[in-house]
Amino acid sequence: MNAEQKRLDEARENKAPWKKWGPYLSERQWGTVREDYSEGGDAWNYFSHDQARSRAYRWGEDGLAGISDDQQKLCFALALWNGKDPILKERLFGLTNSESNHGEDVKEYYFYLDSTPTHSYMKYLYKYPQAAYPYSNLVETNRGRSRTEMEYELIDTGVFSDDRYFDVFVEYAKASPEDVLIQISIHNRGPEPAEIHALPTLWFRNDWSWQGHADRPSLQQLDGTVQAADAKLGTRYLYCDGDPRLLFTENETNMQRIFGVPNRTPYVKDGINNAVVHGQEGVVNPEKKGTKVAACYKLVVKPGECGIVRLRLSDVAPGAAGRFGSAFDTVLDARRAEADEFYKTITPAKLNSDEANVMRQALAGMLWSKQFYHYDVDKWLEERGSDPFKAKRKAAPRNDHWHHMYNGDVISMPDKWEYPWYAAWDLAFHVIALTLVDPDFGKQQLKLMLRERYMHPNGQIPAYEWNFGDVNPPVHAWSTIFTYALEKGQKGEGDKDWLKSCFQKLLLNFTWWVNRKDRSGRNVFEGGFLGLDNIGVFDRSAPLPTGGYLEQADGTAWMALYCENMLEIAAELALTDEDYADMALKFVEHFLWIASSMAHVGDDAGMWDEEDGFFYDVLRLPDGRAQRLKVRSMVGLLPLCAATVFTGEVLTKYPELQARLRHFLAARPEVSAAIHDPVKTGVAGRHLASILDETKLRRVLEKMLDENEFLSPYGIRSLSRYHAEHPYVFQTGGQEFRVAYLPAESDTGMFGGNSNWRGPIWMPVNALIIRALLQYYAYYGNEFTVECPTGSGNKMNLYQVADEIGRRLTRMFLRDKDGGRPVYGGAEKFQRDPHWRDCLMFYEYFHGDNGAGLGASHQTGWTGVVARIMHVFATTSPEALLEGGKRGYHKTVAPVEKKPRRKEVAA
Amino acid sequence: MITVRKIKVALFVDRVSNQWVVRDPDGDFWIIPSGEDGWQRREPFLFSEESELEAVPGHYLHMLRLPF
Description:
The structure holds two protein chains of two kinds.
Chain A: H1 3-12, E1 21-22, H2 43-46, H3 49-52, E2 64-69, E3 74-81, E4 94-95, E5 105-106, E6 110-115, E7 121-129, H4 135-143, E8 165-176, E9 179-188, E10 194-204, E11 218-222, E12 225-230, E13 234-240, E14 245-249, H5 255-258, H6 271-278, E15 289-290, E16 292-301, E17 306-314, H7 326-346, H8 353-368, E18 370-376, H9 377-383, E19 406-412, H10 424-434, H11 439-450, H12 476-491, H13 496-517, E20 549-551, H14 553-574, H15 581-599, E21 608-609, E22 614-615, E23 617-620, E24 626-629, H16 634-641, E25 643-646, H17 649-653, H18 655-667, H19 669-673, E26 687-690, H20 694-704, E27 711-712, E28 715-716, H21 722-725, E29 728-732, E30 735-739, H22 763-780, E31 785-787, E32 795-797, H23 798-811, H24 828-832, E33 845-846, E34 853-854, H25 860-863, H26 865-875, H27 878-884, H28 887-890, H29 902-906
Antiparallel strand pairs in A: 1-2, 2-3, 3-10, 4-5, 6-7, 7-8, 8-9, 9-17, 10-16, 11-12, 11-15, 12-13, 13-17, 14-16, 18-19, 20-23, 21-22, 23-24, 25-26, 27-28, 29-30, 31-32, 33-34
Chain B: E1 10-14, E2 19-23, E3 29-32, E4 43-44, E5 53-56
Antiparallel strand pairs in B: 1-2, 1-5, 2-3, 3-4
């Protein structure tokens, strides 16, 4: 067992709080819903970036490359000043939703280079221009661009010309759980010596101003050290190498600047900014105390050289010698080496160095994307004047029915700048990757969303703070059983108590879905946009322009998959607990009802279109007519994803269940007539729960694997390329609605206009397709082959197809034969410069034709699933999958040898 | 039965005079001078045509140490 694994064990067993300090600081707290107290709910404009340096936050904090404790009492981050910027660089800058032509977007370059799961070692890179940061240029130029134009990026401003910038590396290494070493290495990449002010900053989150209690924490100078004292946290010390000037102020709102009323104290949040940038007197406390402090290091770094700043945040009181110098080096070197050692055990031996780098940075990004998320909705509603228990209350613009919620936990975020709030369905995908390095954290995250402080009393899982009541695809059960099986495969036994408690809560959620989203009681589901933003002809979350409603192929497919996953959980629990046997049968039957409704072929318009061989949403009009909306999109591929193999163990153990199932099938032959026969056994006697029978499966695969439709060189597109030449057009009420293939950014403002499901490649749904193909393979085996790509004459079994899709997805991040990475498209600096080209960003989605990264630049969240995809195909084999079924992967404790790929053979 | 609806305490800034203004539980508006004992030194706020009240989030109320 390596050192990091020991730390994980100690953290799990509560022997040492190795996860107490971590990268839990957000990268954007301004512009969030929780900080929004505007009348109309205009979160982006209510609390702006411009206000952030002066206005204390109510619910959380933000900073550059920062850390905090797990309750975010005390925060540490880096501030920088190049002597030219109009403000300190205390936080990342980006455009708000309305400022940019494609929605909100961070305009900075920063990279999560490394992290261990206990954060015993972390490394971050920020690229800081030496010229004045072009704030207004970015705002004005982007505002002037249309939706059909590209975004104007920081690199386009020329601020990195001649390499006049600093590479600022921030590393953290824990000597003990409460003794964190911090090294800031500042490299001048430019041609001339350049001055930089580094201001490592320590501050307390302001929770004293809003609650009227006297427990105000304090920072004060003791010789050259900062003592931080808080009633709950205890005492900590910030040791600063060298003899920097310490500037103290209070983390309190500058009332004069924000509200126009006099300040209570001259020492307010922007005091350090005003002292350093403007040389103002009297804005930092000469008594050397406060709730926010910065250590001021002024460096002049020669070209090609590096300046180093070292600090130590510790619970050890002053007195001991050797905090810096060789003692510091020894710990830092040890943690770096241990991080390497840890990742060596995680990374399959078959991966080459570039692949290993991609996988490690994907996981580093996921670990850096943890954030302390604090939002007491009841308190927030009260502070807005909206009391949920009063009849004549003032309604809040959002989240008015979620007053039960109290969130105050470290949660995996999709992107700590663009999406610094949890998103329930994203989180389920995050866990799929995070469990590669920290299964305990994955389990805790899944359970968290089901707790009473999160889940609505009615059973709904909260979507995200923009509207907790939005409906996201129900993938929680899938992530739960995957995580359970992974642990069982690796340890020999799974955590059944955890699985049981999740199952109970998931039952509430399942029931919520059935009772709320099946309007007609016919086992066909709605759900609105269901996470796929602009994929539909209409905004699927709004009243339809035609009247009536949609029966959604994706909503119904998600519910079929939900049934399969609940069946998997119930069947697993039933092996040792008879109480769950009935539930297993319940979910078999429920799956059959849903699947048959979806695949039903009759006089009425169903979702399956026999002529096209594809699934579509069905529009039910108020006059009783119905029609399929023939958009070939991910919506129609999701039914393929509802496929799971079963061994039938539970039926063997409980013969009466088998009898009841047989009776049900015999009594209701129509239920299984149009779907895959659940009784028919495949490889190794396995059963398959699938909406698609073999014929339908082949027809859908034919489209999915057609390079002129869904199969791009970099994965499966969200919309068929067919619609480039054949846009889908729907006319109603004199209005025309059109869906065309858009491989890059959205050209409409639907759902904020900052994402696009009309062509680009999205990692999470590709992961689900790969999962399904492996399930089909475990059932059909090597005999079932298809052309891949369609029309190529190249026959593949479904394992090979899954592998091929996995390779195409991975290829977006890997260097190609010319040394470029598709993810960076035409950005030359990212492609060629040695200081940029191996630093990776895991975007939100990718260009449908060339694989270039689009949308949020740091959505390592669900795009980090690429690490799991790489791991799957490097550690398992078709033989293992055929032999062990689903367990063929889960049982892989250590990486296994893998047969070389075709290209490797050819080479 | 007749129930009396309790008026919510609310905080504002008057952008014309640059002062805190509080609406108390009785619905009366008061100017609150800056300082530790602002409530003791309160003065009635009289609306005029120039008055420009901007709502301030409820959590700032605690900072003024009001007796309610």
